Amino acid sequence: MPLTLSEKILSNATGRRVSPGEIVIVNVDYVYAHDGTAPLAIQVLTEELKCERVFNPSKVLFVIDHASPSPRVENSKLHMLMREFARKHGIKLYDVGYGICHQVVIDECIVKPGMVIVGADSHTTTLGALGAFATGIGSTDTAIAILTGKVWLRVPESIRIVLEGDIPNYITGKDIILYIIGFMGADGAVYKAVEFQGSSLKQLGIDDRLTISNMTVEMGAKVGLFPVDNVTVKFYEDRGVKVKRLEPDSKAEYVDEVIVDLSTLEPQIAIPPNIDNVKSVSEVEGVEVDQVFIGSCTNGRLSDLEIVAKIMKDRRVKEGVRCIVIPASRRIYLQALRKGIIEILLRAGCIICPPTCGPCVGAHMGLLGPGEVAVSTSNRNFPGRMGDKSSKVYIASPLVAAVSAVEGRICDPRSYLR
Amino acid sequence: MELVFKGRVWKFGDNINTDFIIPGRYKFKAYRIEDMLPHIFEDIRPEFSRNVRKGDIIVAGRNFGCGSSREHAPRLLKLAGISVVIAKSFARIFFRNAINIGLPVIVHEELPEIVKDGDIVVVDLAKGVVSCPSRNYTSRFKPYPKFIMDILTSGGIVEYVKLRGLRL
Ligand code: SF4
How are beta strands A322-325 and A351-352 bridged, if at all? Predict the structure, then answer.
């Protein structure tokens, strides 16, 4: 029987052929958790499971990225709990300043194609861009995985999304995934694996793929997988790592297929309060904004910052607008610094914060006040996500965010690229 | 664990995310989960935490529990006394979190269309039957696979793993 990508990876991990619908118990290559989820996992481990020894500490990672650096004493106490547990069990902990967990595991070359990775965070799907079966789990799951090295999974049915056509220069991974979510709906892929294929893939760099896989969870997907093609092989080669191509079998079975023509796509934006309320930016042009946030595990990577710098060079953020930029990791921050991007952004009037989730999750560093409007490159826009519950968050690409910061209102970026 | 539940309905709509169940701002303020209990559904059903009774049942629309992987959400529902959640569909992390902590979650397309706030609903997990006697409604649902049923009857995956000597 021909296999989809996720069936291939899970078959490999269990040592037998698996099929959709069955529940399997798999060994995980890595399990990670952050300061929003690790404390509860530690509590389950120590209080409920009376854990003395973890299965394999080298497969466990902690990252302090959500409330980081700590804005409150309560958070500081949770951070201390993580540090103490990590020290006691020999677990690697990426402390304040390394960056957002999903980016840190990429920077450190921890994630590799074909791995099974679970993270105590819904956006663990990000890593599917590199051909890893990576999915989000809860804190109890995490505790069990830390203790036993295993996790239970239902083998998902797969949906194939075929990307076709020449990608215009104003279209980014963000526009592509927003369009797909708008089309599929917020529950359009619940319990399913989503696999991206098609002739446009060769034009789609890793950063764009990471954005796309990241947001597959916003339509309920368990994983969002890209094949390991020449683009991926080259990405690893540049880091001195050799990986093999990994593709689904040509006759693999999919429960659904969606074909998207990218050549005619317009820049997209999700209108609050729902992520599947997606329109073309041209339809909402002119909405005045108080804050622009460029960052998060969705769009805080080097190519995102590069696009923003291209727009901001010799321009200024509109007076009265706060434009907060947060590189997703220290490594990205450093790269941006070397390329002169940080200076361009600072001169344009942006605020640069240390690598953290920041305002994406409403923890700190730029919460919105009552009724305020923001354009954000993050991934969720429901009421109260980034501050007061009457604030409004429009989700868009870094390109749309940057031109909107310059204009002080939502703006179609195409006029800037002509 | 018992397998038959009878409780009063709290009715919710589609896309009830984990932030509606427990706003993120409390996640970052509270050290222990019990401290969050008064804030459950605060933004959309402020009366919930005062009026919820042990055994109550939540009936909701599509994609219940979407959003973050925050396990606090199902834990708080269980802590508040909710015995079962029935929805047209669940976000997958919420679904697995609920199973892992021993909170039964049932997918049912029709029941959410039929019952209203305050109705009494009866659920038989083993037989796979839901009913609402006052509306003369009975229907079946797909029983759980054995592995999931075993986790639920153990009272959650922690108990399940303990019973088996740390084997999964
Ligand atoms: S950046 Fe936002 S979405 Fe990503 S892990 Fe942090 S809080 Fe979650």
Answer: parallel
pLDDT in tens, B86-137: 999 999 999 999 999 999 999 999 999 999 999 999 999 999 999 999 999 9
CB A34 within 8 Å of CB A139: no
- Give the integer Cα–Cα distance in Å for A407 and A347: 16
Query: Whole-number mean pLDDT of chain A?
Result: 97
Nearest CA in chain A to B17: A382
Structure token digits, residue A327: 């590189």
One-character DSSP codes across B64-94: BTBSS--THHHHHHHHHT--EEEES-B-HHH
For the beta carbon of residue A19, count every other beta carbon within 10 angstroms: 14
- Of the candidates A262, A112, A273, which has an alpha carbon nearest to the alpha carbon of residue A174? A262
Model confidence band, residue B23 (pLDDT cutoffs 50, 70, 90): confident
- Give the tokens for residue A418: 């002509």
Residues from chain B contacting residue A40 (CB–CB below 8 Å): 33, 71-72
Quickly count: other Cβ atoms within 10 Å of residue B160's Cβ.
Answer: 21
Q: At residue A408, what is the residue type?
A: G
Whether residue B160 contacts residue B139, with contact meaning beta carbons closer than 8 Å, is answered with no
What ranges do the domains of chain B cover?
4-163
CA distance to partner chain B, nearest, from residue A149 (Å): 10
Assigned token pair, A86? 């990590």
**Do the bridges between strand A92-94 and strand A60-63 make them parallel or antiparallel, or are there none, so unpaired?**
parallel
Kindly report the pTM of this predicted structure. 0.96
Q: Which residues line ligand 1 (CB under 6 A)?
A: A 66, 100, 121, 123, 296-297, 357, 360-361, 378-379
* Overall size of chain A counted in residues: 418
Question: How many whole angstroms from A365 Cα to the centroid of ligand 1?
Answer: 13
- Which CATH number describes the domain made up of B4-163? 3.20.19.10
Collapsing DSSP to helix, strand or coil, A326 comes out as coil
**pLDDT tens by residue, A173-189:** 999 999 999 999 999 99
Distance (Å) of CA A5 to CA A162, A224, A249, A299, A311: 14, 10, 8, 25, 38
Residue spans of alpha helices (H) in A242-284: 281-284
Relative orientation angle of helices A302-312 and A206-215, to the nearest 10 degrees: 110
- Could you give the CA distance from residue A97 to residue A87 in angstroms, rounded to a whole number? 18
- The domains located in chain A, with CATH, are 7-14+22-154 (3.30.499.10), 158-264 (3.40.1060.10), 270-417 (3.30.499.10)
Q: What is the pLDDT of residue A391?
A: 97
Lookup: tokens for A99: 């960056």
Look at residues A208, A380, A194, A195 and name the one whose alpha carbon lies nearest to residue A277.
A380
Cα B118 to Cα A118, A322, B6, B115, distances in angstroms: 39, 47, 12, 9
Question: Do B86 and B121 meet the contact criterion of CB atoms below 8 Å apart?
Answer: yes
